[in-house]
Amino acid sequence: xxxxxxxxxxxxxxxxxxxxxxxxxxxxxxxxxxxxxxxxxxxxxxxxxxxxxxxxxxxxxxxxxxxxxxxxxxxxxxxxxxxxxxxxxxxxxxxxxxxxxxxxxxxxxxxxxxxxxxxxxxxxxxxxxxxxxxxxxxxxxxxxxxxxxxxxxxxxxxxxxxxxxxxxxxxxxxxxxxxxxxxxxxxxxxxxxxxxxxxxxxxxxxxxxxxxxxxxxxxxxxxxxxxxxxxxxxxxxxxxxxxxxxxxxxxxxxxxxxxxxxxxxxxxxxxxxxxxxxxxxxxxxxxxxxxxxxxxxxxxxxxxx
Length: 305
What we know:
Blueprint: H1 2-27, H2 41-59, H3 62-68, E1 69-76, E2 82-84, H4 85-90, H5 92-95, E3 101-108, E4 111-119, E5 125-135, E6 138-147, E7 159-162, H6 185-202, H7 206-211, E8 218-221, E9 227-228, H8 229-241, E10 244-247, E11 250-259, E12 262-270, E13 279-288, E14 291-301
Parallel strand pairs: 1-6, 8-14
Antiparallel strand pairs: 1-2, 3-4, 4-5, 5-6, 7-10, 8-9, 11-12, 12-13, 13-14
Helix pairs in contact: 2-3
């Protein structure tokens, strides 16, 4: 009799335990699904912001433009003139270009680059690079740069001369030192990669140069056709075959902005032999597999007044 009673009690407690577990499961609030991302994600946001900035410029709407420009913003027109944020806003309509065509966007970390073609405020057909940075959750324009490319294919430009004992070239700036105060380990890594690229150019080392260049890299330079990574490698190899002396632009000024795995480098260069006018260069960097690589370089010559 006692055994039967004990068995009934065990079954009763088991039933209570199961019922309690079911109640707890049913009472637990279900996790709410995350809100859907906007169509296209950050790509669409950046393209929309870039288009909005262009429209605000054409309308002379300083309030909208001011919200879209970072405090560090600067713009280089196709003549190589630099317009800082304050001056840019003061002459907003005077800076306005026609709506862009062939627009593309690439995002690296919290840095985005928008590229394409447009008719500039000076009525020139230009290639443009707009660099955006995600600051405090919002995309803001960091740099804008225009450049007039060659109408037809042209050989890559480089300052070259036959190698002679009487006129040896030693690359000190930027190969050995750059007048820039590094503010973080990431900036130092980018500077190291940039110096490795310049050393490889001077030393005709296409393989070493390639290690620091992203596969999608393209060089855009005043009066020249766009040159992809493969074109630059071929040029370096030709210079090696002819034993040409290659001179690279010395860095006069530089500004770096690093945002996670993306970075923007803005610099002014001069050629030691004056074979080319001074030029402004805007470059975007991406960190891949622990190494910083250059993804684009836009170089605009400074025209004499």
